Amino acid sequence: MSDKTASLKDVAGAAGVSVATVSRLLNGSLSLPETTRKRIEDAIRDLNYRPNPHARRLSRGRSDTIGLVVPDIANPFFATFVAAVEAEADSRDLAVSLFATLNRTGREVAYLELIERKHVDGLIFVTNHADEGQLATHINQVGKVVIADEDVPGADVPKLFCDNEQGGYLAGRHLAAHGHRDVLFAGSQEEMISGRRRFDGLRRALHEHWGEDIVPATYRGNYTVEFGREAARRFIADGMPGTAIFATSDEITIGMIEVFRAQGISVPGDVSIVGFDDVAPFHLFAPSVTAIRQPVRDIGRRSLALLLETNWQDLASPAPQELMPVEIVVRESVAPPAKR
Amino acid sequence: MSDKTASLKDVAGAAGVSVATVSRLLNGSLSLPETTRKRIEDAIRDLNYRPNPHARRLSRGRSDTIGLVVPDIANPFFATFVAAVEAEADSRDLAVSLFATLNRTGREVAYLELIERKHVDGLIFVTNHADEGQLATHINQVGKVVIADEDVPGADVPKLFCDNEQGGYLAGRHLAAHGHRDVLFAGSQEEMISGRRRFDGLRRALHEHWGEDIVPATYRGNYTVEFGREAARRFIADGMPGTAIFATSDEITIGMIEVFRAQGISVPGDVSIVGFDDVAPFHLFAPSVTAIRQPVRDIGRRSLALLLETNWQDLASPAPQELMPVEIVVRESVAPPAKR
DNA sequence: AGCGTCTTGTAAAGCGCTTTAGTAAAGCGC
DNA sequence: GCGCTTTACTAAAGCGCTTTACAAGACGCT
């Protein structure tokens, strides 16, 4: 139990070889005769030697760590995403450094610079808000970034989303099949691709069913519980303009249901709802909530794979983009519209 | 836009000073005349210089990174905890390295060794399962570890829990006040301190209300949805032995409610339930669920503070232990027992 | 003029590892 | 017993930073 931790030199000394020998043995680039190897291994054990990762990283010029930046870890959607990335990273012997941006561009940029400083070998970047190109500029100049879940327009790096359009379509088809024409879209700002695509899908389904002159009403905001509450209040204040709502995140859905419940508005009696994400325990809600399910874990796993597989030297431009399939999980929050 | 990133030496060269000067300027241990400083700062800007963190860490012998080991990030309780730690770390300019153990002792030990290797400057350790001393041994020999949420018996490091006994007591008192004598405790194994303390609190409340010969029945398992389901099934199979249940985690609560709902057993009509944690959106469940709320974020923040505040050189033995207050959030899942 | 004392720096020794280039000794064919 | 290959290693140059010890010049003071 020495005070200082043993270094390679100590091991080499104890084993009577040079540090190079020990290092190379440890890194597998050397096969030694039984006796020498044994001597070295004994020394390592006796001294309780642990390689110093900082020295190793400095020497090798890489960190075997990837960065993961998400808006908010406490959000179950991102939490699940993070868990999937972490598991995948671990299975590949990579560490992950976690950063939460709370959707502040300043912090996002700061974290992007981490990779410039070689802090991490690559970055999986998830944002949640619209941006005016500042982010894209940084991302492009940093490289070795994979964008997941929400687009950063203008960033020319590999991207991975769920099939938002299809999600919107499935929601719309389900609602239309139950007789809903007047569907409110409660989703993100138009600048956000996820919002736009989900809306496009919804509209496509409604057009398919009711004809081209249907134009879904929209309330736009953030993917937050607070916006959900706001949207529900506004929906009530506007005199319930629609028989169904497509709430495009778990948070929005939760916020809306919360207010409807408090105001005595029945779901699906007075208004039907389809949610999006389906990470929350919707099956236990009152009523249970029909929702479009994102394959969050798959997206997480695939993001890391993408980060590692990509040949960053000669990355095609535009960089590849992948879509993961979504599905609709039918529960009880959709019913035919009430008679007026 | 050079190919290689600029190093201190490059900056020093461009500014016409030595690397030591630049380094010391950057680290604040030197005040230079206006003109020199300007020259150096210009050079830094022109070269887009970023310090290499690995070199810095190697040289300084610390990483300004703390490790955070939790069982499962996807679990909303831990996710919230992680978010709180991350936020606190960020505000102190520390990075956090995240590790998920999935409750496997092997991985827990592996992560403990990280700190031995100086990978991180300290570790916040959260476990979720009973252990036979192996963990404690490692923790003690590693040092610079703070244990949160669940005890690791035998580990002599600072610890931080919620007031589990008080939580059990509040649950028991609430149930007793509604007329429940026969309360089933659905919780963790007795080896886990959280389970034991919560049970003690429950019993204390029931004794206080009904007298000393009440002995609450217990189902023991893990803090998982799966165990919740199992417990509910067993409860039904056993002929509903009790009028109320104290389910000691969000997951157990969710699992039980799921099964009760599927089996047409009414909560709180047929059986009352009090949950624990209250991170899940219980207010939207059917019925909304009364639960003991843990101050998860506070625990997270405080854990990091504890890690940094502790004087590890001469740490008193036994190490200090703190308890965070809990509260009961009353909703609709408790009603007087049905008449038999 | 001589001395002390700031001010403004510098040189150089690490930190602990990886890796390239190279060498001494042993084995081998003949 | 000579050259050649293989085996079994070693020396040493980094990686990019921090930090300690030290020094030259400017300045004030006596």
Explain what you see.
Two copies of one chain form a homodimer. Chain A is an alpha/beta fold. Chain A folds into three domains: 8-51, lambda repressor-like DNA-binding domains (434 Repressor (Amino-terminal Domain)), CATH 1.10.260.40; 61-161 and 296-324, 3-Layer(aba) Sandwich (Rossmann fold), CATH 3.40.50; 164-294, Rossmann fold, CATH 3.40.50.2300. Helices cover 43% and strands 16% of the residues of chain A. Chain A has twelve helices and twelve strands. Chain A has helices spanning 8-15, 19-26, 34-47, 53-60, 76-91, 105-116, 134-142, 164-177, 193-210, 225-237, 250-262, 296-309; strands spanning 65-70, 95-100, 122-125, 145-148, 159-162, 183-188, 217-221, 244-247, 272-277, 290-293, 321-324, 327-329. In chain A, the strands form two sheets. A six-stranded parallel β-sheet of chain A has the order 2-1-3-4-5-11, sandwiched between helices. The first copy, chain A, has a six-stranded mixed β-sheet with strand order 7-6-8-9-10-12, sandwiched between helices. In chain A, strand 1 (65-70), helix 5 (76-91) and strand 2 form a beta-alpha-beta unit. In chain A, helix 1 packs across helix 2 and helix 1 crosses helix 3 (34-47). The longest helix of chain A has 18 residues, at 193-210. Chain A is elongated. Chain A starts with 7 loop residues before the first helix and ends in an 11-residue tail after the last strand. The model of chain A has no long low-confidence stretch (mean pLDDT 93). Chains A and B meet through helix 4, helix 5, strand 2, helix 6 and helix 11 of A and helix 4, helix 5, strand 2, helix 6 and helix 11 of B. Chain B binds a DNA duplex (30 and 30 nucleotides) through helix 2 and helix 4.
